Fold this protein.
Amino acid sequence: MDLLWRGPKFTDEQYNYFRYSQELPARNLTVANGHGSNQAKTVQQTTVTAAHFAPSAEDGAYTEAQHSVKIDSVAQWDTWLGQVPLSDAIGNPSTTIVFFPRFRSQVEPDLQDIGILKRLPVSRPIFEKVVAKLHIHQAFQLVIIRGQPIICRLKQSDNCITYLLRSNSALKRDLALSLTYFNNTQRTYAAFFGCEQKDITWMQTRFAFTGKTVLAPLTLISAFLELEKMQRFHEVGEYDQEIAELIENFSDETYKSQAYAWVNEDDPKDLVRISRKVTYMKNDMEKWKSEITSLKSNEADFPTAMEMIRVGNTSSTSSPAPKIPLLHAGDYLGRLVSEYEDKIRKCDAMLATVSLAFQMETAGNARKEADKMKTVALLTMFFLPATFVSTLLAMGIFQWRPSSPSDSTSSAVGGGSTPAVDDSVVSPWFWKLYIPLVVALTLVVLGLYYLWTPIKRSLRRANMEKSDELRDDGDVEMGPA
């Protein structure tokens, strides 16, 4: 809510928040040298795309004119800004747009930077002129700092409305838009921040296709919403494909060496990472859906399908000014909300699938542990009979040597007697009694185990079949007569 208390003009502190072209590192680009080979070239990212849409005739007839230019010098900026019509000047409706490209790091070009939108490819004096000419509200700087998805509507006067749009900075390719619309002169000023070159090309193609409706603020807002929708829905499709491949190859042990191998044993098959990403993306789409719903509640700001925008020479009375039919704001935003609701439900389905996959992984790990315990049990069953027999035969109740005077005692000096020493290494009873008992008992134990395993499976299967029959009988009895 503190956005509503912001004044329209930037402060010096807010200008200092942004990083300008002279503060940004240069980028290495590979360019053709004209001799059939490529060479590395260090360049400064300072090129900005600007466009101006306005009628080109003075007699009331509308001829579509799109003046899109690449600006990369101070002289070009001064020339272009000098051609931007003032908001209160007498004349035809117009739309002025500046596309600030997204800065790309030389070291890690695909790294997501939450402060990427504050990096501008222009100097501070140029940016101050752009802010003044395009009527960028100072609340826009606070929107950039927060990095949260928001669609803010600031009504500065009866004839001036500012829209500030910003997607989540934690997601890929976040965007921001400042749009100011003057109703009395029907002039629109917009600045897009964080655009990729393909985004700029797509918007220019869209504006050329929509033709005269580019003069309406809803067209620019819808372009921003469509870009955000395509990016988020593309991410939903990527995660859905990743989960589908994960489930398809779930039981493949060689899967660990494939593209989705996990490096953290606490996160098998990256299930925790995927769940966290999908949950975060779902929450962001829910937030964005609520912002679109809030924008839809203010659809009265946008002309309806039955209303028109006049173009051409409005002072001319010789011929009526042509009309431009516009998109119905309520219908468009309502459909957009429905599309987001569908993707949110898909995220819920993906989270349920990930949860099921995690349970499958846990069950698989449990089965592996059970197999290990089974091996230990088999080894125990193999050695336990021998241990039992040896312990039993070692008890004092057994006498293994015959009692004879020659073996029991021997003469000693002084008239005493000492126990005779047994010269045998292995008692014959080891082969006659111990080995047969051990072998027989081991075979009996292992045989009982292997016989009981299929019997137990058969009993379980019989119980399941009996339960199914009882359930089917219950369904028949509960059915219609």
